[in-house]
Amino acid sequence: MLNKILNWAKKEDAIRSVILTGSRGAKSTIDEFSDFDIALFLSDSKKYVLDDAWINEIGKPWLYIQEKISFKNQQIPTRLIIFENGVCADISLWDSKLLEELVNRRQLPFACQRGYSVLLDKDNIAVKLPAVTDAVVSNIKPSQEEFLTAIEVFFFEAFNCAKYLARSDLWHAKLRDWTTKEYLLKMLEWNEAAKHNWNYDTFWHGKKMQSWVDKEVWSKLHSAFGHFDAEDSWKALDATIDIFRQTAEQAAEQLGYDYPFELDKNITGFVQSIRKK
Q1: Sheet bearing 74-83, strands edge to edge
Q2: pTM score above 0.90
Q3: Predicted confidence (pLDDT) per residue in 43-77, tens digit
Q4: Paired residues of 90 in beta bridges
Q5: Are 68 and 92 contacting, i.e. CB atoms less than 8 angstroms apart?
Q6: 65 vs 71, 81, 112, 222, CA distance in Å?
Q7: How many CB atoms lie within 10 A of CB 144?
């Protein structure tokens, strides 16, 4: 895949630099399913943004999705592509002028902050990008208000999940359950980052969680996801609340914030009363 992209890019005059990012660019652990994250820096991006025919010049796509990523108040066009044989490439289309600005400012595009490899550099500009230094810190310490809001939203969704389980409305219960998981993840990230004085990388969206979360919590999380039936979903909800409570109490202690014990008691008690019925 890299050879195909590079052979094509070398022939395209508008493509000035090609940078490999992601796990492959960072030369971290990869496997056969690892994507190819490619940043193209272009002197003229219109041709590639307005007409996606260039994708076929690299290889035959099964499908591709037009997407955008935000960087410094700019929208960077991106193509999420699955080529034949299941090879996936995320190709972002950057303005080459932005690359020059980043070099002058000694800054890295966020996609490069975990590591990168310059594959093509027609103008000898990309090689001047700064080296990756410390690990990326993916968390910012929450305020007391942000912390409390996360707890309130979690228990609000747990409350609703219980109601829909009581109605045997399993699909919507699962929808509510997933929101509790999103806030559980947020709390897990905060707690682990707080343990390490906020100099700790928890990646994003739970990626590589087993490598950064507490081992005991990882083991407990296996009981937090239930099957598509009421009884198992109830057990998963109980486990989710228990893990969230334990994590949030630890985080509150480390942050010096108050944990809303009364809120927890009221909602948990209500959930338990519904289940008994």
Answers
A1: 61-71, 74-83, 87-95, 36-42, 15-21, 117-121
A2: no
A3: 998 989 999 999 999 999 999 999 998 887 889 99
A4: 37, 80
A5: no
A6: 19, 7, 22, 33
A7: 12
